[in-house]
Amino acid sequence: MFALRRRGAASLLQAKTLPTFQAVTRPTFAQAFVSSAYRAQRQYSTQEEDNKDRKDKDEKKTPPTMQEYMRLPEFRNSLIISAVAAFLFAFNNRPTEENLFTFQDFKVRYLEKGLVSSITVDNNSHVRAELLPGTNGPHGGFPVCHFDIGSVNIFEEQLNAMQDKLGIPQSDRVPVKYTRTTPLMAYVMPFVPTVLFIGGLVYLNKKMGMMGKGGGGPGGMFSMNKSKAKLFNQETDIKVKFKDVAGCNESKEEIMEFVHFLKDPAKFERLGAKIPRGAVLSGPPGTGKTLLAKATAGEAGVPFLSVSGSEFVEMFVGVGASRVRDLFKQARSMAPSIIFIDEIDAIGKKRGGGGGMGGNDEKEATLNQILVEMDGFDTNDHVIVLAGTNRADILDPALLRPGRFDRHVYLDRPDIEGRKAIFHVHIGKLKLKVKDEPNAADVIDRLCGKLAALTPGFAGADVANCCNEAALIAARLECNSVEFKHFELAIERVIAGLEKKSKILSKEERTTVAYHEAGHAVCGWFLEYADPLLKVSIIPRGQGALGYAQYLPPDQYLVSQEQFRHKMVMALGGRVSEELHFASVTSGASDDFKKVTQMAKSMVLSYGMSPKVGEICYDTQDQQGFKINKPFSQKTGQTIDLEIKRIIDEAYSDCTLLLKEKIALVDIVAKELLAKEVITRDDMVRLLGQRPFVEKNDAFNKYIGGGLTVDESQKSAPPAPEDAPKV
Ligand SMILES: Nc1ncnc2c1ncn2[C@@H]1O[C@H](COP(=O)(O)OP(=O)(O)OP(=O)(O)O)[C@@H](O)[C@H]1O
Ligand SMILES: [Zn+2]
């Protein structure tokens, strides 16, 4: 209670004598900084001295550079400490007894005695009073004093009252000036966000610039309008020649024309010939489009500017078009040259189709700019534009008009001879065991042929990948050179993914998988148009496959109705075998059903193989690959459904018939599979006898079946147990 009253009185008192004063003597930040820096320097020199003592006393030390100095941890620590100290000083430094100077003191010591010459009130809160010269002021004897006040009105009142009391006439009264100063920070603060923003931008730009350098192109936000094309210099970078692009001789011939032109443009111009501006290289992924474009530049010995269509598209409007301008400008400056735009479908899709969600305009603008640039070429510009795409069918027709990309070079997946040639290219870079043998060339040729036969459907990139994978496997197995078995493993890996031996199947699951796979294998063995089987395995592999069988489909362009039927019967072999051997079936056949349904659907909808539906093609997808409404009546729809079902049902009953007949053989194969996990074609021949047909795959006969015809090979193998059933 008592304490409370005292405090109340004190605050009252303070309210009355409001103008109080705090004479603050703050050690400045600069002082703190200097002292810490000094400390750091001392530490630095001590450390240096230690080192010197330890190492070589006579060695002359070079003084540290500013950068080295600032990188010292001590320097940084002391910087932080002094910053914190300065902060604490600035905000926590309470006035002490000595430097507390109040308005009361000012009145008593100077005002009443008439020692004040002028008064300045700053920001209505701080008073600075000039004293008469020679007066001993409170702050170190200077004739000046300052203190804080709470209210200007009260201060003025008291000042006037005092001077009234002293009887000072109005004319002699101490002049009072009012000023308003803004603290430095108040000026600086508004600029801080701007400075930070610009600083951030510059920093980002530098970072992007560095990434750009790594990626081979100019980066940075301020160079956004610059083309991101990667430049390959003809002397240093482009070592690719036509001989490195194997298996696509027609495409090479077509593109050869550009090479001739770039090498000797005058020859063509003399005759008034207009050289095509560009060519679209299309084909499935990995078939060597980029490689062929590069080889064209390599053969012609001109610079090669490579850019991907998607690199034109940014979130900012107009960037694409200006990148195109920049790209062509760059190409013209180094003409003759080749521009290669990969994935041109990213910007070159048919225009005006609508349906795009924003960004379409930007793509159109970019595409338009490409067209404008190509039109704007003078024939003596000698810049050729090649474009790569997997989807030539969706390109804007304007792109393909004469005078633009008027040549169309199609690169298909290679056939067996093509793959053999590509294997030759990539095997040349490997350390092969057979290379040391006397007839190495023949052996390698045969090896390449065999590998080509084993890799139906592989594109050039898959072949390259397979060769590299074989070398990696050889290295992993600590071998000194790459052998055929490494290629075999690599092919399997490329086709089916890595073996997952860690995936443990239960005993029941393993049995089911074995009978399922045996069902497929036995079915295929006795069906004339089923592809030759190479290997069956029940070791789980990547992509969720529990069992796996390797077949060798021939390079084939037409499929007959009979072939479809045999393929379907074989695909259903897994499920039927499960039905025949177990009380219940499993989910393992879903992939087989997908294949079967797809085949039956195509037969009915596209290939005219259903008498009820007739010779009609119902396309249910538009050119862009989107599903479109069914283009047939409901009644036709029902007929189609019934026909698809009929075809599958017939295949199913054929399959059941066949497997019921061969059930003992399925048992034998399944047991062998369970025992060995993997069985090869030789095992199958041993267990089931030769297939009762001539293999339909020429490649197989030439490279894998050892060149033997069935008749010859049957002399040395056990005869087929039964004749092929008619299914
Ligand atoms: N015909 C070929 N001869 C030799 N190597 C090839 C051939 N085709 C592809 N390759 C190999 O495959 C790699 C990839 O090929 P490339 O990048 O040219 O394919 P792409 O058709 O441009 O693929 P994408 O359509 O995916 O861009 C090449 O670097 C090369 O090693
Ligand atoms: Zn299956």
Automatic annotation (TrEMBL):
The protein's topology relative to the membrane is: Multi-pass membrane protein
Q: Which residues cross the membrane?
A: 184-204
Q: Where in the cell is it found?
A: Mitochondrion membrane
Q: Where is the region Disordered?
A: 41-67
- Needed co-factor(s): Zn(2+)
- Is this entry keyworded DNA-binding? no
**Family annotation (SUPFAM superfamilies):** FtsH protease domain-like (SSF140990), P-loop containing nucleoside triphosphate hydrolases (SSF52540)
* Alphabetical list of PROSITE patterns matching this protein: AAA
Its catalytic activity? ATP + H2O = ADP + phosphate + H(+)
List GO terms (cellular component aspect). m-AAA complex; mitochondrial inner boundary membrane
In which residue ranges is the amino acid composition biased (Basic and acidic residues)? 49-62
| Coiled-coil ranges from the UniProt annotation | none
Q: Which NCBIfam families match?
A: FtsH_fam (TIGR01241)
- What is said about its interaction partners and assembly? Component of the 850 kDa m-AAA protease complex, a heterohexamer composed of YTA12/RCA1 and YTA10/AFG3. Associates with the prohibitin complex, composed of PHB1 and PHB2, inhibiting the activity of the m-AAA protease complex.
Membership in a protein family = In the N-terminal section; belongs to the AAA ATPase family.
> This chain belongs to which protein, by name?
AAA+ ATPase domain-containing protein
Give the organism the record lists: Babjeviella inositovora NRRL Y-12698
